[in-house]
Amino acid sequence: MGRNHHEALEPAPDATSTAETDELFAVLSDSNRRFVLSHLAQRETPPALDPLAGALAEWNDDLTREDARIALHHVHLPKLGDAGLVEYDETVRLTDDAADSLDLVEDV
Question: Most buried in the list 1, 66, 72, 102, measured by CB within 10 Å?
Answer without folding.
Answer: 72
